[in-house]
Amino acid sequence: MVTRRSFIEAGAAAAFASVTKVSFSAPTEAPTWQHGISIFGSPRYRAEFRQFEYVNASAPKGGATRQAAIGTFDSFNLVVAGVKGDLVVGIKLIYDTLMVPSLDEAASEYGLIAEAVSYPANRAWVRFRLREAARWHDGKPISPADVIFSLNAFKKLHPQLAAYYRHVIRAEQTGEREVMFTFDKPSIHELPYVIGQLTVLPQHWWEGKNRAGNRRDISQTTLDPPLGSGAYRIKAFEADRFILYQLFADYWARDLPVKIGTANIRELRFDYFRDPGVAFQAFQAGVLDWRIENVAKHWVTGYVFPAVLQKRVVREEFAIRNIGTMQGFAFNTRRLKFQDPRVRRAFNFAFDFERINQQLFYGLYTRITSYYEGTELASSGLPRPRELEVLEPVRSLVPPEVFTTPYWNPINADEKAIRANLLEAVRLLFEAGFRVKDLVLVPPGSNEQFSVEFLIGDQSLEGIILFYQPALRRLGINAVVRLVDDVQYTNRLRDWDFDIIVAVWQTSLTPGNEQQDYWGSLSSDVPGSANLIGIRNPAVDALVDRIVFADNRDDLVAATRALDRVLLWNHYVVPHWDFGHLRTARWDKFSHPKNMPKYGISAFPELWWWHAAPPARTGRGE
């Protein structure tokens, strides 16, 4: 999701040049090899563990599932995702990573391609020893050269991952099956864990030739099915129509402890739909097997077809415990019209969440009040002593409310409250220099009406904005909705060509480098970054650094809560709503472990298995 061409090109070139392969360098200190990594503390599972506790080790392998994907695809190249083309859904199924996270721990990983990991107490570097058995689907071994090639490709061509790996200044081969990453700074506790998540790509395939005899180019999109190393391979596809993944019969890692009881469904098919409503109809008809339901109206009123009543379609909610989410109307602060926080706050006073929740969402949602909603990282009340220690050095750079007032969203309990909130919005706008001319709102330094465009690529959002429009028009604001196709939407985001969008940021329970990409000044003008708002705020930068360099869990939580307060009181978004659970529906032919992992959400299809042939269906939902 990104701009200043010279900045990204120069930065990418420098990053690429500094990460090089140096074969068999002498180690600076003898490695102490471990089977796993935990950001803080020790991994839960011991070196001799046989399987994760939450899996069904006896789950049968077989069956198939069909799911919906919305939009289009024209690329299998993971490296340029978000910069070029529309990446096909599920492509990571064909690849393995150095390490694998456990789903019942907040921040621990165990070896997959890497059988062991080593790093010093100050975490200034990390070294991985690759498994001798690790293989690509063509039988060739996965090598340190593949690992280095992958890191270089992501750093050079993928803006978000370039930010994620920005502290890696050198990657080198230090043994026959060893690769070492050196960091620019010590004491960033998450970096070994971050590198463990690296998706490893086959250098020999990407530098080889395709069937037409042309050399492949990893900087471009491609529909040439890539070579993988993971549990699945691409069996068949038709661009913009479907993608079919099939279990790879000779998967090298299927008996490893981190893979026992996973990848149980033989075929995974994703059918593409342009219209989410048509996808729902396809599910009702039994064409699709599994569905994540994100439309409240469907959840309340749509599941009344015969198969549901006959319990051949099962609905189930899974608690979301591993992700903190901010979703909202996000302002492009690169534009002069949104640079005053009072203007942004006025939009919140005009937003009638309560009526939207009742009339459109059946009262299912609560209002978001944190960028880390649903986790212990979310701020609340006034800053606690540890948070105050973090905030004190930036006191002069942040809104005073950070220290004096718990963050709050306006509440439209009744007509009186609605009028009062609109009057407060008017007061804020006038305070920011706006005035009324010919019954319309005019910004300072202009004689034209204040106009804003809501850019969306999802038609389901249109009704929400149309509900919002009348209140903005009562303030004298000309608010329009612009619905565009996927390609236009992606391109306009890349060029920062928007006023207001609906944006979503998700954060794990251990935030780190990605926070620089979300909110940091260095990413604000980088094409493809997640800093959609364009935040350039020295206080935010300082607090993000406190998160990145936190050396214990308590400091991490305090720094994140402090950042949360500063982001909230700068009013960069009009917060939306949250449910706290993943709503799913499925035709009754899949099973999951009785005790689902705490941080796995639905863990579909990773931990599920096919338990019976689908029931006969004679028509729509029959």
Question: What would your notes on this structure say?
Answer:
- The chain is α+β, with helices and mostly antiparallel strands.
- The chain has three domains: 19-41 and 67-246, D-Maltodextrin-Binding Protein, domain 2 (3-Layer(aba) Sandwich); 275-312 and 586-622, no CATH class; 324-578, Roll (Dipeptide-binding Protein, domain 3).
- It has a five-stranded mixed beta sheet. It has a four-stranded mixed beta sheet with strand order 2-11-10-9.
- Helix 11 packs across helix 18 (553-569).
- The model is unreliable at 1-27 and 614-622 (pLDDT under 50).
Q: What fraction of the residues are assigned to beta strands by DSSP?
A: 15-25%
Question: How many domain units?
Answer: 3
Using only C-alpha atoms, the radius of gyration works out to: 25 Å
Mean pLDDT: 92
CATH fold-level name of the largest domain: Dipeptide-binding Protein, domain 3
Structural class: alpha+beta
Helix coverage percent of residues? 25-40%
Under the CATH scheme, which architecture of the largest domain would be assigned?
A: Roll
Instruction: Give the number of DSSP strands.
Output: 25
CATH superfamily of the largest domain: Dipeptide-binding Protein, Domain 3
Task: Give the CA-based shape.
Answer: globular
